[in-house]
Design a protein that fits this description.
This protein has two domains: 2-70; 91-130, no CATH class. The chain has 131 residues and is of the alpha+beta class. Helix content is 22%, strand content 24%. The radius of gyration is 18 Å and the shape is elongated. Strand 2 and strand 3 (40-45) form a beta hairpin. The strands form two sheets. A five-stranded antiparallel sheet has the order 2-3-1-5-4.
Length: 131
């Protein structure tokens, strides 16, 4: 089961959100969406789904961020923190000497919280961007 919240100060139509979730997530054997209060909702899939993929992807509805998080069976869905999400950031036009993990950590922690970076076995992130 997943808890969800739309990060928006505007009101939204629950039925439109539910329909969009069905279209975006394409559940193999269907899913149920239940509206809670304070802008939260629950999603229950009728089959096994890759939780990591669902949580780590950036979802949106009507140009607002949609946060999804797996909820354990005994957790209260109203107490699960749905306040933040991760972004993938690419930094372009850096000198090669600055395309490394140390610089990525500095930049990441300056704009938010650094989580991870794709790189090969060398100390540099070879490519068109740092990210």
């Amino acid at each position: 089961m997943f808890g969800g919240r739309l990060l928006s100060n505007r009101s939204y139509r629950y039925e439109a959100l539910r329909s969009s979730l069905q279209s975006m997530l394409l559940p193999v054997k269907g899913m149920e969406v239940k509206q809670l209060h304070e802008g939260r909702f629950l999603i229950r899939f009728n089959h096994v789904i890759n939780k990591r993929t669902l949580e780590r992807c950036l979802w949106s509805f009507e140009k607002n961020i949609l946060i999804l998080k797996a909820i354990r069976e005994l957790e209260n869905p109203m107490q699960v923190t749905l306040e933040e999400c991760d972004f993938f950031v690419h930094i372009h036009e850096l000198p090669l000497s600055m395309m490394n993990l140390g610089v990525a950590i500095l930049i990441g922690n300056r704009i938010g919280v650094f989580r991870d970076m794709e790189m090969d076995d060398s100390e540099y992130a070879w490519g068109a961007y740092l990210g």
